[in-house]
Amino acid sequence: MKIKLLIVSVLLFTNTAISQERSSHLIGVKGAYNISNVSFNPVIEGVKAIKTYKNYSLSYINYNSLWKTMPYFGFQAEVYFQEQGYELNGNKVTMESVLLPLTSKFHIDFWRMRVLMNAGGFVGYRKSKSDGFAETDYKFDAGFIGGGGLAFVLKPFELHLEANYQYSLTYLYNPQKDSQINVSFSHPSQLLFSVAIYYQLFGK
Predict the structure, then answer these.
(1) How far apart are CA 149 and CA 118, in angstroms?
(2) Which among 29, 31, 30, 47 has a CA at the least distance from the CA of 189?
């Protein structure tokens, strides 16, 4: 019984690895629920996260082997429109941003599902702000993204449920905007829970 189980497991793994070597190209749309915040250093009392819903993207995914040695590899490129911000002493500050994320999309396939693991970075531009941009505000944005989720493969469609953390390495405000001596660093962050639907353009 154990030998039969081992043989079946090896056959399933081999079939999965072979199927993952085939390239697939998908395009889709994503919507996300965002828990958005800005971390200040030194800490500013009264800063809280806000929840935003105007987060959506147009995405392209390519599943392919990396150098023909990593059959679980893929990558994702997006045009992402996000509503970000934070709350300070009851006052909300919101921003609308356009981001261009590029992430590795490692995946393990089984049955009609994929386990997804994401890691990568982004560049972006903050195009509007609820209280207006000051000369000490930074509009350019860049940082990293990490997370994961599950994909349900319903060919030619895929449904993705994911959670990703996004952290800006660039500041929101000039650290010396209030003082040349006492600096304050401000890093926006986003916790994004998303649902996406993709269509397989071609591939297997």
Answers:
(1) 9
(2) 47
17-33 pLDDT, tens digit each: 434 446 889 999 999 99
β-partners of residue 30 are 57, 196
The percent of the chain in helix, strand and coil, each rounded to the nearest 5, is 10, 65, 25
Residue 17 three-state SS: helix
CA distances from 8 to 2, 20, 71, 76 (A): 10, 18, 20, 33
Which of these, 74, 134, 126, 118, lies nearest to 99 by C-alpha position?
126
Nearest CA-CA partner of 44 in 190, 189, 183: 183
6 φ, ψ to 5°?
-65, -45
- Report which of 116, 175, 184, 102 is spatially closest to residue 144, judged by C-alpha positions: 102
Tens-digit pLDDT profile for residues 83-103: 999 999 999 999 999 999 999
Domains located in the chain, CATH noted: 2-203 (2.40.160.20)
Summarised one tens digit per residue, pLDDT across range 139-164 is 999 999 999 999 999 989 999 999 99
pLDDT value of residue 70 = 65
The DSSP code sequence of 39-84 is EEES--TTEE-EEE---EEEEEEEE--BTTTBTT-EEEEEEEEEEE
What is the CA 126 to chain-centroid distance, rounded?
17
**Spatial contact of 78 and 101, defined as CB atoms under 8 Å apart:** yes
